[in-house]
């Protein structure tokens, strides 16, 4: 496996949701805890951001322009990195302590986003679907930390994880109706190995999982077996995304730490990394709503 490169050092508190836009040749990503939506140019190393007034968990590039996003306060559209935020709906008005965490578009251009319960006192995190008509419906969940959402290349399998429970699920997905059925356990990681955070599926259908607390990213076969491992110079990788001119660059976001011994061991915690791979990723669908 190629060498991991530090693309942007110590750039975030909680870097997450990297998304490559091939038309703009930019890596968009968020700093959840700082409430920032970033745009990174890997050619120049330049990075800019939009400052929001709340946490942003996830987003997708919108076909009409701008973005759709999941914030603490619900679903919104964002006109550009200059701003222009329009609320759509908050499916968890009764749970102000929860926020959106992980999300992406399905092959039909719906935006799916999941919430987390920071108290971990109830399995009250769920994935919701924001449809093309901007209606919202509950999809799947009963999680502590909704994470790891990704689709197989044919769109017929939906993967998601519940990070603190160390488990990734696989479900049958109907792209026409957006329905989920037949949820089963895909892989469960042993305690101490790392917890399945954000994920991406490559063009061969393998699931790449960022293992929070494990300092590694693993490539998992459709049969649920680990076949490759990338060691990351940060204890808490949070998400991966394929991008670059040839779609074979894996970008890795990570979380910073305020625990001094961990920061001393991993001084690049909270950085954005990249590594070139012998496999390509899937181009992210844009939100069609
Ligand atoms: O990075 C994320 O997706 C979450 O926002 C993080 O907070 C992380 O996944 C979470 O802290 C892991 S766990 O719930 O503590 O296991």
UniProtKB/TrEMBL annotation:
Bound cofactor: record note: Binds 1 divalent metal cation per subunit.
Residue sites binding substrate per the record: 99, 101
Domain SMP-30/Gluconolactonase/LRE-like region: 14-255
Active site: 197 (proton donor/acceptor)
Needed co-factor(s): Zn(2+)
Residue positions binding a divalent metal cation: 16, 147, 197
MF (Gene Ontology): calcium ion binding; gluconolactonase activity
Keywords: Metal-binding, Zinc
GO biological process: L-ascorbic acid biosynthetic process
Pfam families in the cross-refs: SGL
Family: Belongs to the SMP-30/CGR1 family.
Name by which UniProt lists this protein: SMP-30/gluconolactonase/LRE family protein
Organism from which the protein derives: Corallincola holothuriorum
């Amino acid at each position: 496996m190629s060498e991991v490169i530090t693309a942007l050092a110590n750039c975030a508190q909680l870097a997450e949701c990297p998304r490559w836009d091939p038309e703009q040749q930019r890596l968009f990503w968020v700093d959840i805890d700082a409430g920032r939506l970033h745009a990174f140019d890997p050619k120049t190393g330049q990075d800019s951001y939009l400052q929001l007034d709340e946490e942003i968990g996830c987003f997708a590039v919108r076909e009409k322009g701008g973005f759709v996003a999941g914030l603490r306060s619900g679903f919104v559209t964002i006109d550009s990195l200059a701003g222009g935020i329009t609320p759509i709906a908050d499916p968890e008005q009764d749970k102000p302590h929860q926020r959106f965490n992980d999300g992406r578009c399905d092959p039909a251009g719906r935006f799916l986003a999941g919430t987390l319960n920071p108290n971990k006192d109830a399995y009250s995190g769920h994935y919701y679907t924001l449809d093309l008509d901007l209606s919202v419906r509950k999809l799947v969940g009963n999680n502590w930390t909704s994470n790891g959402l990704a689709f197989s290349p044919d769109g017929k399998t939906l993967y998601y994880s519940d990070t603190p429970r160390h488990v990734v699920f696989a479900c049958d997905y109907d792209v026409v109706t957006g329905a989920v059925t037949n949820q089963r356990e895909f892989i469960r990681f042993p305690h101490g190995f790392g917890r399945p955070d954000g994920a991406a599926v490559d063009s061969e259908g393998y699931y790449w999982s960022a293992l929070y607390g494990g300092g590694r990213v693993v490539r998992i076969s459709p049969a649920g077996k680990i076949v490759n491992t990338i060691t990351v110079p940060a204890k808490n990788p949070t998400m991966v995304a394929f991008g670059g001119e040839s779609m074979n660059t894996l970008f890795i976001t990570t979380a910073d730490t305020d625990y001094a011994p961990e920061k001393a061991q991993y001084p690049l915690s909270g950085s954005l990394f990249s590594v070139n791979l012998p496999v390509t990723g899937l181009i992210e669908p844009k939100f069609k709503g």
